[in-house]
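Our collaborator T.R. sent over the components below with a one-line note: 'Predict the complex.' Nothing else. No constraints on interfaces, no templates requested, no preferences about which chain binds where. So this is a plain run: every listed entity goes in together, and whatever single assembly comes back becomes the starting point for the next discussion.
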Amino acid sequence: MALLEIENLHAEVGGKEILRGINLIVNPGEVHAIMGPNGSGKSTLAGVLAGREAYSITEGAVRFKGKDLLDLEPEERAGEGVFLAFQYPVELPGVNNQYFLRSALNSVRKYRGQEPLDGVEFLKLVREKLNILHIDRELMTRPVNHGFSGGEKKRNEIFQMAVLEPQLAILDETDSGLDIDALRVVADGVNALRSPERGFVVITHYQRLLDYIVPDFVHVLSQGRIVQSGGKELALELEAKGYGWLETDAAKPELVTA
Amino acid sequence: MTTAESTLEEIARQDYKYGFVTDIESETIPMGLSEDIVRLISSKKSEPEWLLEWRLKAYRHWLTLTEPQWPNVTYPKIDYQALYYYSAPKAKKVLNSLDEVDPELLATFEKLGISLAEQQRLTGVAVDAVFDSVSVTTTFKGKLAELGIVFCSFSEAVHEHPELVRQYLGSVVPYSDNYYATLNSAVFSDGSFCYIPKGVRCPMELSTYFRINAANTGQFERTLLIADEGGYVSYLEGCTAPMRDENQLHAAVVELVALKGSTIKYSTVQNWYPGDKDGKGGIYNFVTKRGKAMENAKITWTQVETGSAITWKYPSCILQGDNAVGEFYSVALTNHRQQADTGTKMIHIGKNTRSTIVSKGISAGHGQNTYRGLVRINAGADGARNYSQCDSMLLGDRCGAHTFPYIDVRNPTAQVEHEASTSKIGEDQIFYCKQRGISAEDAVNMIVNGFCKEVFRELPMEFAVEAQKLLGVSLEGSVG
Ligand SMILES: Nc1ncnc2c1ncn2[C@@H]1O[C@H](COP(=O)(O)OP(=O)(O)O)[C@@H](O)[C@H]1O
Ligand SMILES: [Mg+2]
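Returned assembly:
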């Protein structure tokens, strides 16, 4: 069974149609990269999948492990194994990062009918993941994303992903604005989790990340539609050509190849 | 409506969990207030002549006063002649153990999660349980007595330690202080008394649970705490009240006397019935709390206020002696139609006196939360320092937060710092938590508790846990 099936998905915000018929299938074990110019609807797609309220779905369906995903609350989707690394991680002043993560982990465990991890087990898990990702322990003692640099916020997203071990991880421009070290952390996080059961949707503006996370498929999103799909070489082609050529072609639906 | 908003709506609609009335026989004197009633209260308690005189002076002074209008709260006019000024459960005369306590009362405490037996066994806290106005049971007395610590009901102290009561009663909050304190001075029924002798460190947290139970009974508790030179005491006050329809007036007075080099920590977790969603039936809490700190003494007020329809309360410190320290840590939560006007006054008189104010106001529903604080540095207070931080958090957009910091500096060497912030729990914050699997309700709880952390840190451990739970209960709502 496909992990994620998106069928003719249309979504609008404030009366404006942003997603205009997305079709995408992610099978377990696959990494899909979604590229596209600013404003093409990448974050909107990620938000719709995670259950952000601001969007209304006007047409289409999304199934996750065969279940109607759009029918679930955001926290239920998380419980089912959907994780979104936010393009702009949100600050929670006063809420300890470690406490937050433990609450999150135990919430999803509860959803799955698993026993909560006690403090000792949780710390062990945290330590293990910190080591894999070369993240400083000190990050855990601070309030969630509050006062974090841009890079720290992104690392924290990846760290949360590593601890929560989702079945489908959606990374929304996690690479933007990162130096090469931070980029490695992101790539290590994803690569460490890659497995035959998991799927990834990696949204990125740049080809660069895909040198580290080698995708199985690359899709080009433009004006709310996937206008082209291909293998990893498509990313290189995009890098060379830029997005400029899309702006005109995308308006003509007959050129859509995916 | 968006999820975040609907969550906040749910939260704001949540009902008070501790509403019930215990059916215990009460002995009540006639309704209304007059000199005769004051005399009757005094004689019922077989008080000495000096105390009756003090009450009468207060009563006569009260007649010349009018209710304060300046707080940022509104409520229907109180008819002071329509209240009962004394009510005592008909308890057995002397109680040696919990077994002798009215089982109804014990059941009430169970419902509140404050089983005395549990408290005694598990936490080693001595509990002076005030049910309505009269102390019903006192524990750990023997152990405290060995150290020379006096911890008893106010009435008992009047008989057993009249010299201490006479010396200190009204020494911090004079009978003429303000409308409600003056009323209290005239008609106070009972309360707690504590004396820590010189150099003695009280080995346990002293704790009193107040309950308001008899319908229509204005509650006029009077608490007097004295820490003699070098003494130390941590005192906990906590309360919940049963649900009912008439508004109930509570005008307590708490006086703290911290003599040279002593420390008093006074912590309150207050959860009186706040009224229903429309604000009907809640408690009016008009309290005067003040401490006087002599040389090198320290007074810390920590309060978590989640109850009452209206709260009017400014635990204050008079920093009389040199190097005296005053601290005020407060969390005030208003939900539904609750109104709170609370804060502190720090009066710096001695040299190098220091004060810290940390106030966290949380407003939800239609709640109105006002911080009102005064920092006064007198001319003689060389080197005095104050740090104030007032943060407000809004849940939803029909509630309000207001801050009135008054600063009155009369000495050029003083350093006064004030910081303020207002934040809102955002939809994006709640979505972020939900995406990680955390329910909206837990998310709000987590964010609110994070906001209050600096205050909870000041509470004794068990109390901090209780306070956290209380905020959870006060904000709880089913999220669909
Ligand atoms: N909340 C919103 N209100 C109105 N327009 C929005 C909102 N969110 C996104 N949009 C619009 O939707 C389009 C797609 O945005 P987005 O999904 O963030 O693109 P991308 O992530 O590809 O840069 C943009 O034109 C943006 O202005
Ligand atoms: Mg985006």
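Summary for T.R.: Chain B has a mean pLDDT of 80.
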